[in-house]
Write a structure and sequence with these properties.
single chain; 196 residues; alpha+beta; 2 domains; three-stranded mixed sheet; two-stranded antiparallel sheet; 7 helices; 9 strands; 46% helix; binds zinc ion
Length: 196
């Protein structure tokens, strides 16, 4: 059973929009975050409510935005659930029903990064900053996981003994197994790549 505040919120939102109310299915989960699904064809919204109350509110409002909002369009082969028109409805609901802008940006942007682009376009205060810091975080991640750097330029392998191992004298890499057998038969070239 949905809690009374949720039933009241659904009633208010649908009355204000002049639409019928969905059947709300509600269940509780032990995790903090909530999730939801809206099925227009079944006339229902299902919420799996986590323990964080603000997240319950935001999730229900998000699903209500699907309920009120435009029928999802197809674009580039997939259904665009969260497009500009959707966020036009959703941001309006969040603000009218007491979700602070900063919370909305952090939570909606955390789940759906494209929300930040729509929030900027909609002029939500703080959206520029949230978008910029996300872009910075993505760049930082790309730097860490980006293409490897050349640590030692391409060179002809020169095999040398190093105790019980054989290494390339130029880059120091240990050469073993089939590679070693092949390099003993004929010269090969090396390039040493790495991160750091
Ligand atoms: Zn959604
Ligand atoms: Zn080498």
């Amino acid at each position: 059973m949905a809690p009374p505040w949720a039933i009241e919120l659904v009633r208010q939102v649908c009355a204000a929009a002049g639409t019928s109310e969905p059947a709300v299915r509600w269940r509780s989960a032990r995790r903090a975050a909530s999730s939801g699904v809206t099925r227009r064809s079944l006339g229902s919204i299902s919420v799996t409510a986590g323990t964080d109350e603000l997240d319950q509110h935001l999730t229900l409002l998000h699903e209500l935005a699907h309920w009120l909002g435009p029928v999802p369009r197809r674009g580039r082969g997939r259904v665009l659930h969260h497009d500009t028109r959707f966020y036009g409805v959703a941001f309006d609901l969040y603000r009218r029903h007491g979700i602070p802008d900063a919370e909305m940006l952090a939570r909606e942007g955390g789940r759906y990064p494209s929300a930040l682009r729509h929030a900027r376009a909609a002029g939500i205060p703080g959206a520029d900053g949230a978008w910029l810091s996300r872009r910075e975080a993505l760049r930082e991640r790309a730097r860490r996981t980006g293409p490897p750097r050349v640590l030692v330029a391409e060179h002809t392998v020169r095999l040398v003994r190093d105790g019980r191992w054989t290494r390339c004298a130029v880059c120091g890499v240990r050469v073993v197994g089939p590679t070693l057998a092949r390099l003993r038969r004929r010269a090969g070239r090396h390039i040493l790549l790495g991160r750091g």
